[in-house]
Amino acid sequence: MEEATDVVETSADAVVVGGGLGGVAAALALLRAGRTVILSEEYDWLGGQLTSQAVPPDEHSWVERFGVTASYRALREGIRRYYRDHYPLTERSRGWRELNPGAGHVSRLCHEPRVAVAVIEAMLAPYRGSGRLRVLQPYRPVGADVDGDRVRAVRLAHRDGGGEITVVAPYVLDATETGELLPLTGTEYVTGFESQGDTGEPSAPAEAQPMNMQAVSVCFAIDHVDGDHTIDRPAAYDFWRSYQPSFWGDRLLSWRCPHPRTLEIVERSFTPNPDDDPLLVEADQRLNPGDANLWTFRRIAARRNFADGAYASDITLVNWPMIDYLEGPVIDVPDAAGHVAAARELSRSVLYWMQTEAPRADGGTGFPGLRLRGDVTGGGEGGLAQAPYIRESRRIRALYTVAEQDLSMAVRGDKGAVSYADSVGVGMYRIDLHPSTGGDNYIDVASSPFEIPLGALIPRRVTNLLPASKNIGTTHITNGAYRLHPVEWNVGEAAGALAAFCLDNDTVPHAVRRDEALLAAFQRRLTRDGVELRWPQVTGY
């Protein structure tokens, strides 16, 4: 990590602000193209939702065969290789080609966040050594110098004090979790729900609701061992213990909640350490969302994958319905930090409830053996994840905005998603919107495997700022499908490749999309680098 005591100015071919999955992928694309990069990140770990936010990867059913970029596949295989090289796997698990260390049901690759950090650092290490990559941690953007339709420089401040650094670069990539550079640079953007009149989307409301955004969540890891590991009673516990959203069917702190796809009130089970066989877990959300037993849903370490005695317990990651914070958004509000603090208090209240009051299958209450594993999530405040999981960002007003009718199976039927002439990648996930700060229930819509249009990565006016995360030209509705791990990585990789292509060809992003020859050349470059632009014949879910 680097510190500064005074304002310092430095330069590179590109500055990537935000070191989440999109930011890392963008930096790698630029570096592979021979460019110099400054990458900044506010938290102690690179990797965003995969690491500092502690969210196991949400991926589509075909991820082991196709539908992700080559570099994202390298990340996934690097994680498996790290386990084989450094962890005491059983021989049976070591030989498992599609090793799932946590045997979680949400993904074919559930793992401890720290392993992804190690792999990401290894992917970046050669470029640090060569001097072409400079990583500024922990730094966050606080200002920008804008000249007309161009961003000249970005000002970064050390998170813990100690000065500022101004980065001057021909291209600026916003890979922050909330699109922080958009207001700082005056780039036009939207937040929350657009209206049906604006987008024509079947699931949109009649009136726009810019402050109605998906819930944020502060995740945490737990195991279950002998002894009483009950945390101190949270100060706001009484508030959260009695809190009941109107559509929830029970108190938020309960095993009951709406089913995302049917909105029927269902009761989930919770059985720590069920002693199941990891190799028999079928992690395929096309067949089963996998959340019936919350313990195995997002489990990140299945003890039966490891030598006897290596793990006293499974480790599971709590990113469950009851930690969704609905009391207010964390974007474009004066009390954003207060809402994040309240979301942390909710998560600790959920843990305390589970330890002391949660109903057990044997008729008793409380699981005092649940132990908070802040060491697994990197020592975030109060033993929780370092960063809140933010599902919805500010989104640029783009040359093209992806709407629900582009990919919804209810609209498209057997035609598949709209195919874009300017595709720069592919993705797949259901349109999966969590309850929102405006009091809306889940919105969950079956989707067709979709493409990522270049037009969604280009602001209407600003010429050298590119979105590289969840801040592309989607709507509130389609963000629910475009926000997941492999899509964010693909978006970042495409944005980084676009900046490098423009520098190499002395052009600008708007011209690349407008000029057929330039667009074809850029798409050939993406394909050469292992970015898939089209899907084979597959059906969504």
From TrEMBL:
Alphabetical list of InterPro entries matching this protein: FAD/NAD-bd_sf (IPR036188), NadB (IPR005288)
A Pfam family: FAD_oxidored
PANTHER family: L-ASPARTATE OXIDASE, SLL0471 PROTEIN
Stated name of the protein: FAD-dependent oxidoreductase
Gene3D superfamilies named among the record's database cross-references: FAD/NAD(P)-binding domain (3.50.50.60)
Species annotation: Streptosporangium longisporum
